Structures are given as structure tokens and as C-alpha cells.
């Protein structure tokens, strides 16, 4: 699955309101690159480049052109993204020390925010490594593995809660909560949001968390669907409720999401097989670029209703349904009741075969 945890804020550089004129400065020392290699500075997923600088004699000097309230989170990377590092830049003279092929382990000096985030990451990294190892090498079908992953997730939550409680004024506190609030849900996220300082609550991260806490319906299997009304690629306002009375697969996806695009051929096959018998797909896109969205629909031959607000992962439908990862779907029966969620591949094919046998 393509995670939304880092993409929700970043379809463009965030609007920080009243910008400041003071600039961040980064003195880079990078080895292994040819003289003249370009280094880029970008917003997060999907990456939006906003500045660049060339390496000269293993050095670069970057003075930020972004007018924003610092600190801000950016990616430093090569053109092909093979070398990349996410850093927090401040209005100080920072140092960036890295080497080709090992950019992710670059050292960043003289950024208190970056150091604070690094220290937090070191606290949770052992849990993340173990979860990844279990999923890759063992799988999640074993109940014992599921219990262990649940325990590790709980440890990450408690480490995060402790950090937020200790650092309520730091942008890292709101950033951590922002990156996890859809996974943790309203019951766990709201108390942590209440711990944040008023300034943090009014930050771009805090505003989006607050929107989630307000809009999210915590929709589960057995619940009636919540309606979605947004614009189609043609600019027509259409609603999920327009297709009530059919079996509907409510599909959350995006053109930039590799796993989503990989799943599309199966969806096309199932749509063509069962549409005439009362099956519909309703696509909700986490895209921000209309042209990319339209091209993906055309290329993948997605001939079912599609809608988007073109505001990326901040789409109100994703907030309402609490979507933290895409692709994600809900299967809705003829009476409007959700009967399954996140059916993929063979599992989806099997369920539709049972319904339309």
C-alpha cells in the first residue's frame, strides 16, 4: 500500500500564512558526485521541486528562497531521487554532510528541529524495523505475529504520546501526530491533539488534524455509507448516492500511487464482468494534479464514475472515511450497508463471484 502519512500536507509547499523574510542557509559537503551535479529541494510526496543548486568541488551553498515560517520539512535529493534525505531547515547556517549512495545517513548540523526529530526516530526505529521484518519474512497470517505487531504498534504510540506531551510547542509534536492520526483514529488522536500548544494547533499540521477530528465518521463494516459529493473530471458534480441500489466498490486511489495502478487491471476486468449485473465502482482520487488524474483514468481505462477535490490527501472524503493508506476500498450492498473493506486481488474477485453467482 502507498502510505498517506507523508503525503497529506505536501501536494504543494504549505501556506504558512504570514511569511518571514529571514532565510535558511545550508552549507553542504557531499562526496562521490561529479562536479556540476544538481541537488534539488522539494516538498514531500508527490515530490514538488521548488529549488536547486549545483555541487562544485564537493560543496554547495544553498540559501532558501521559500518565504515561510520556519522550521520547514524538505527533501534534499538528486535528480533521480536515488540519493535523498528529509531534513528540517531553520533560519540558521546549517551543515549537510553526505556521500553518494548513502544520502539517507547524511549528517545535519545546527538544526535543533532536525536533531529533535532524529532523536525521536531513534527511539521508535527498533519497533519499525521489527514490524517490517515480521511482515517481510514471516507474514501476518500467524495470530502470534499479529499480536506482536499490535504490541509494537502500541509501543510506537506510547513513545509518540510521551514525546508530544513533553514537547507540545515543537513542530515535531504536531508533525508526529499528523503522520499517524488516521491510523490511530479519533479516540487516540484527540487527547494528543489537546496536548498541543495553541500555536501548534494553528499550524498547517494542526489545522489538518483538526479537520480530520471534525469530519471523520469512523465508518466500519455494518455501517451505512456516508455520502460523497465531488466533481468528476468533466467538472460535473456527482454523488456516491447517485448509484445507490447497486453493489458499489468505493475505491480510494491516486494516479501517483503505484499499488493503486497495479490493482487497476483487475478492477477493469471485474467491472466489465459484473457491471451489467448491478456492480458499480466509485473512484475517489487523492490527486492534486488534474492532468495526471485524467491521464491515469484514460491510460488504465477506468470507465466508472470518478471524483476528486484535487487537494491531494486532504480530500474531505478521505478525512470522513479515515483513509490513512491507499489503495483502500469499501464494498457497499444494494441497501447502502458496508459489507466488506479493503478487499484486494483474489479476495475481491472471490467476494464478487459469491455475490453474482
Which features does this protein show?
single chain; alpha+beta; Immunoglobulin-like; Glutaredoxin; five-stranded mixed β-sheet; four-stranded mixed β-sheet; 17 strands; 38% helix; globular
Mean pLDDT: 90
- The count of domains is 3
| CATH topology group of the largest domain | Glutaredoxin
Let me know the largest β-sheet.
5 strands, mixed
The CATH level-2 architecture of the largest domain is identified as: 3-Layer(aba) Sandwich
Our Rg estimate from Cα atoms comes to: 22 Å
For the record, the CATH class of the largest domain is Alpha Beta
CA distance, first residue to last residue: 30 Å
- Strand percentage, roughly? 15-25%
Tally of DSSP helical segments: 9
What's the assembly state of these chains?
single chain
How many E-type strands? 17
| Widest β-sheet, arrangement of strands | 14-13-12-16-17
Low-confidence stretches: 2-21
Tell me the structural class: alpha+beta
